[in-house]
Amino acid sequence: MERELKLHVPTVVAKSLKKALLKMGAQPLELRARYYDTPHRDLTRHRMAIRVRQEGARWVQTLKAAGSDSLSKIEINHDRPDGNLDLSLYKDTSVHEAIAALSSPVQLRYETEVTRWRTEVHTGDASIEIAFDQGIVRAGERSLPISEIEFELVSGDVQALFSTGLEWLEKYDLVIDLRSKSERGDVLARSLERDSAQQSSAAGRLFKPRSSRPAQLQPGCTIHQAYVACSTECLEQVIRNAAFVAGVDTEELSTETRRAYIHQLRVGLRRLRSCWKLFHEWVPEADFATTRALRKAFSLLGKVRDSDVLHEMILPPLQQAGMPALPWPSGRDGRYEKAQELAASREFQAALLTLLARTIRWGDEHCGSSGKEFAPRASSRLTTWYHDIIVIGGRFDELSVKRQHGLRNQIKTLRYATELCADALQDTNVLDSREIFAKAQDVLGDLNDFYVAEEEFLHRVKSQPPAWFAVGWLRAMQDKKRQEARALFLAMEQNYSPTTAAANSRATKGCKSSRPSPTPIQ
After folding, report:
1. Distance (Å, rounded) from C-alpha 265 to C-alpha 211?
2. Out of 4, 164, 265, 429, which could bridge 241 as a Cys pair, Cβ 3.0 to 4.6 Å?
3. Which residues pair with 4 in a beta bridge?
């Protein structure tokens, strides 16, 4: 088992970083690797990769498989007398069954060519191998640049791995990239197979935004085990989309693709917030500096989204409705550049690394021990949230605009937390209502967008009286959305069963399930 932290090295700092490694005694080594899989990508689907790599005069065959967390890998190495692949080497290993079950013979799918500068550092009782790779990953005529630094824990406490990585991240403004060379190569090979006639492709169109997935929860898991799984899933979504927004492999982007990365990054941050609320009082909260950095990021990304909504969702229907012409900025206000700068910033990336380290350390310290079962306590807590939303939604017309927005945030928290741990839940009320939660979130989101847009036009009415047209149209749309919201809250109430809620309450008598205090992210 190996643990390795990978950081993307921007071009502007690559020369100075390499110079620092040379001063530390690093020596260059040429590496050429060939990666194999079946035509149906059986190995990739099982989160495995096999390569044969030439390391100077030496040939090494390596199989890697996913480990217990985002940084862990199972690695099996065999020296080879030549560059030929030999799958019989895995006959007596833990991966024998997976190799034997391959649907067809493996074939070469992609290759890498890199120059590696490697050294080893010692901090306390730990040893860390540092390797800076520059080169390319290639599939056919298509290629992507490789510029990454890897920190591998050779021995000692994993804390040393994160401390060393954080030091280099902050010194050289590096970006966390959880993708392996094999993952990037597989995406490149698939793009070639989909469109073999096209000889080039913008890299930014290769990588899809990382969307939400349920956490991988085992039956009967403890609170601590569930927290690690849920936190890991949220951080995977945040860190991967943050790398894309920061420009890693995505320098040539359409506006639509860039917007999708930003959207999924915001969703990931929201899900992380929901995770923290779900485990409130069960797991210690993150430190203030980290939550402050996420708060700042979420606020800026929210402004980017508001600008997108105004230009893409509000102005076009207003113009179609006959709004008089108004002087209006083109929308090219540098908002995407600001988002990229934020995602790549030292403060934000350091916060993400701190949270990743915290989750992995928590898993090391607690997941092997016994503890309270997660499922009944989560079901009780989510049912309590559901009840609170029904009570507040029942007097929706009395709520201020600010409180309506707060209610939407409560619904988002309930929805994301429910979807995150759905496999472990016991309460059918909450599970069966996920579709209603999603609809209510969308309706209240549209309503809030109309409120925000109204404020924008009200600022213009003195100097631009035709803006009153927009204000009137927006208020009419607000009335429509409020009617839809009332109908949805009624449907929530009808779907809610007090009997089930009471059963959950009895099952978890004595454990805290009250609504937690607000998360630091706003």
Report:
1. 9
2. 265
3. 152
Distance (Å, rounded) from C-alpha 102 to C-alpha 287?
A: 46
Does residue 516 belong to any structural domain of this protein?
no
pTM above 0.90, yes or no: yes
Residues near 293 by beta carbon (within 8 Å), at least 6 away in sequence = 347, 348, 350, 351
The answer to whether residue 217 sits within a structural domain is no
Q: d(Cα 352, Cα 242) in Å, to the nearest integer? A: 9
Mean pLDDT by 10 residues, the chain (522 residues): 94 98 96 97 95 95 93 94 94 92 96 98 95 97 96 96 98 97 95 65 72 93 94 98 95 84 97 97 93 95 93 93 82 82 97 97 82 93 95 95 96 97 86 94 97 95 93 97 96 77 46 39 36
**Distance between CA atoms of residues 161 and 151, nearest Å:** 7
Cα–Cα distances (Å) from 244 to 253, 262, 510, in that order, read 10, 9, 45
Shared-domain flag, residues 249 and 109 = no
Contact 245, 262 (CB under 8 A): yes
Residues 318 and 387 in one domain: no
Whether 248 and 175 share a structural domain:
no
Q: Which residues of 506-521 are buried (b: 16+ CB within 10 A; e: fewer)?
A: eebeeeebeebeebbb
Distances, alpha carbon 94 to alpha carbons 52, 59, 100, 424, in Å: 19, 23, 11, 28
d(CA 167, CA 171): 6
Residue 80 corresponds to which amino acid?
Answer: R
With tokens 């190996």, the residue in question is 2
Q: Specify whether 297 is located in the same domain as 328.
A: yes
Which residue do the tokens 């490789």 mark?
A: 146
Strands 58-66 and 48-55: antiparallel
